DNA sequence: GCTTGACACGAACAGCGTTCGTAACATCGA
DNA sequence: TCGATGTTACGAACGCTGTTCGTGTCAAGC
């Protein structure tokens, strides 16, 4: 028998599984249901309608089947989320460490992760939930660790720094996704936001005075700013 | 009539509402249903069973009523989440800025937020979703802004720094909540994690070599490390 | 006493994740 | 060639969710 979804998941986390054998796949469909096909269908839904709209039933419908059929390939919905993150991480390629260019290399990886996540609005939710033993995310960690170490960062600072950076990328992209979601009632233009801050009561003196700075930042200026902040700190340790 | 939940929410965001008048509350219950009572009941559930277990039906049951009754006081579940975050933010007191002690003051506020969030596992999910115009979270922003400005940080750096810090606090607490959730299948001791990292294939050389550093950090050492990193960076601009 | 209007809530709807039992097929041994 | 075997696919159902609608029930105003 081919591995059960449970075994698949366990091996993705390098955990021994109370296992069984394996055998070739069989079936009677024109296009058999596979994990890869499920991931493809799911990513399509997330790209079009956001992570909130991702349901087992919709994935099944996209595959022209019923929801029950998915559970032969996927443990549950959380598992599917993890698989999606895994796929996204696999598509990120990591540069060979160049000691002199460690900052640019790290920024590059983070930026690629950011853009990858933003293509699938809200998927960072799954990234935040993904366990630290997932092999695909560990691959990114390995790559970033190699870059930082090559750049001369001390191992402990590098380890914790990577953690902070990946956490920040996930949180930032999740926030951006929520704030630009057209289904969100509170999405608001910069001008509107600025006028609301200026209209605050006098118990918010600093916020009113610096509303311009608080609402500043086009594109991903805020993102770059924070990355620089953290990398500056790492470089100095 | 007392304000509809919609009007309440709008005013919390300083948005004009297409309003109506107001009138004293009436009812025929021993203990009338109020927004405050709903928040209390909801926080009790989250504290005990986590944010995932927060259900309109459970909140209603705690108030000895049916779910429909809540919708006279709360717009929907997202609104309830925002109210919870608002309550938590209200309970955080902000120090009078002391220019010489700005670092300690900022760290103090972030730490209090962290501990507050951690008391209600998973609630940071709602914090990440909360709109940037919510008055209660703006209050924290105002307080931190005042501290940073008093400490001599440039307004733009202060504004973006606050953003990063609050985002990090939410993300960090969310991660910690998920990783220590006893219902989580992947929660694992430090020793177990370390042995899994060491058992990785040879395509993970750095991860295997520095498994100790990657799994290091008791209590909130990682949290303090990142805060220091960001504050160092802010101080230098 | 009667009307008015705000509050509370029972019942229901559509949709969700997940499980169970069964039907349909490919392969293998005889 | 013909079952027997084991695997895949899936219809139907369960229990739960957020939310809405219509009705009941009380306090206040005339």
Estimate the global geometry of chain A from the Cα principal axes: flat
Level-2 CATH architecture of the largest domain in chain A: Orthogonal Bundle
Biggest interface between protein chains, with counts per chain?
A-B, 61 and 61 residues
Mean pLDDT level of chain A: 90
Per CATH, what is the topology of the largest domain in chain A?
Tetracycline Repressor, domain 2
> What is the ordering of alpha helices and beta strands of chain A?
HHHHHHHHHHHH
Instruction: State the helical fraction of chain A.
Output: 55-70%
Beta content of chain A: under 5%
Strand element count of chain A: 0
What multimeric state do the chains show? homodimer
End-to-end Cα distance of chain A, whole Å, is 52 Å
What is the number of helical segments of chain A per DSSP (H or I, 4+ residues)? 12
CATH class of the largest domain in chain A equals Mainly Alpha
Low-confidence stretches of chain A: 18-27
């Amino acid at each position: 028998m081919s591995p059960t979804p449970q075994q698949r998941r366990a091996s993705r986390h390098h955990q021994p599984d109370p296992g069984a054998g394996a055998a070739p796949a069989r079936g009677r469909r024109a296009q058999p249901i596979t994990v890869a096909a499920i991931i493809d269908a799911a990513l399509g839904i997330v790209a079009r309608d956001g992570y909130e709209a991702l349901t087992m039933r919709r994935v099944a419908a996209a595959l022209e089947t019923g929801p029950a059929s998915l559970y032969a390939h996927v443990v549950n919905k959380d598992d599917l989320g993890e698989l999606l993150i895994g796929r996204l991480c696999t598509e990120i390629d990591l540069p060979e460490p160049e000691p002199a260019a460690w900052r640019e290399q790290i920024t590059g990886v983070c930026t690629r992760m950011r853009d990858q996540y933003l293509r699938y609005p809200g998927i960072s939710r799954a990234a935040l939930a993904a366990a630290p033993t997932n092999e695909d995310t560990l691959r990114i960690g390995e790559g970033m660790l190699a870059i930082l170490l090559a750049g001369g960062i001390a191992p402990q600072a590098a380890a914790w720094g990577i953690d902070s950076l990946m956490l920040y990328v996930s949180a930032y992209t999740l926030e951006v996704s929520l704030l630009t979601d057209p289904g969100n009632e509170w999405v608001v233009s910069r001008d509107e936001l600025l006028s609301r801050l200026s209209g605050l009561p006098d118990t918010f003196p600093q916020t009113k005075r610096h509303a311009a700075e608080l609402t500043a930042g086009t594109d991903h200026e805020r993102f770059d700013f924070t990355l620089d902040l953290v990398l500056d700190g790492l470089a100095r340790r």
